[in-house]
Amino acid sequence: MAIQWNEEALALSDLCIDLRRKLHRHPELSSKEEATVALIDQFLKDQGIRTQVVEHGGVLGWIEGGKPGRTVLLRADIDALPIEEEAANGGGLPKPCISEVKGVQHACGHDGHTAMLLTAAKLLQAHREGLEGTVLLCFERGEEATMNIYHIMKALEKAGIQPDSVFGLHVSPHTPAGTLQIQAGPLMAGMFSFHVRLQGRGGHGSRPDLCINPIDCYAAIGQALAALRMRTVSPFEPLTISTGLVQSGTKSNILPDTCLFKGTMRFYNRKVGLAFQAKLRHVVEHIAEAYDCTAHFEKLNAPGFPLNNDAAYAKTAAEVCRELLGEATVMEAEPWMGTDSFPLYLQRMPGVYAFLGMRNEARGITADVHTSRHDLDESVLWKGAAAHAACAEAFLKQPRPQDWKPNPLDLDTLFEQAGYLFPEGRD
Description:
Elements (H helix, E strand, L loop, with lengths): L4 H7 L1 H13 L8 H13 L3 E5 L3 E7 L2 E11 L32 H17 L5 E9 L8 H10 L6 E12 L3 E2 L3 E4 L1 E10 L3 E2 L9 H19 L6 E9 L6 E2 L2 E10 L2 H21 L3 E7 L6 E3 L1 H15 L4 E2 L10 H5 L4 E9 L21 H16 L14 H7 L10
Parallel strand pairs: 3-4, 3-5, 5-16, 6-15
Antiparallel strand pairs: 1-2, 2-4, 6-16, 7-14, 8-12, 8-13, 9-11, 10-12
Helix pairs in contact: 1-10, 2-4, 4-10, 6-7, 8-10
GO molecular function: hydrolase activity; metal ion binding
Protein name: Amidohydrolase
Keywords: Hydrolase, Manganese, Metal-binding
């Protein structure tokens, strides 16, 4: 008899909401998630699930099926953001709970991600005898800032564990609450960051001719970078570039010595990203030279990997979730220019990352992620738990596509090429 994941997940809705609120009230920043790790580890052990706390990495849990078979990895990220949370959501209505930690907030839904996967773990463990293979639970630290995924993947490599597939969910404030967005191909962008300090020569504002004003230099660079995207990148290639920080000067009549600017560039085609990065460096250095400034690149990391869902597993996930939650619940996703660490799993195993809609205007749940008014529609979290469980069961039965090949690079080289700085504690 088929397992009714939807009915059983709905019955655990209160548990899922309670877990989410516990996590939301006590958020922890990247690499500081000690209490969060302890909560996850204890919850899994209480279900009879074997666990491993990976130093710097997070928590792994094993649900061994009643029959041998493949291994599917289910992943949730667990860290929070340095944001002071507001008590009201995007519509001005009171949130059901807010952070009790000053200056720290779960503003990207990781509390929801974790609660959904913990609830799914309880469901899967209850039905483990009917599973063909192993469900590997992965609760990842440091997704927002410190990329502790390295330690998770290193631990799996050392143990000789190579999952056959992977599934994950991210909440979306842009799509109707309770809907699932699943599609093959590009879903989230790759990115690189640039931090540039322009060195000029300061002086009195009355004699700019005796100074080298780095602000003038930055103004020229900013305009050139905007034009560079239009002149050198096909209009059919998604690519954005933005500067989010400019720091220079202290007073209106004092010309500064330096100007610091920081920004990001995002793309879906990594070859396009690499080519644009080279052009960016060329433009910055040559305009700086033309203005008699010197450009110091304090950061220019290698472009990260975009997120591309495997077509075969995306088809399976969509079919499973339509049957589980209804035809109208599942739709194709609009690609998002945000980034995630999930593409690094996809370099080693095929799989799917999907969005679970959270937008509910009647409840005021409209604010974007990474904002102080961000909120979740808790009433639909059970759907994410059901999707995790149902997709895990289906993926265990599905062989890898014959034409799928993992990235051949060793793990350290893979991370270096992705532009990540290794977290403290690297072997």
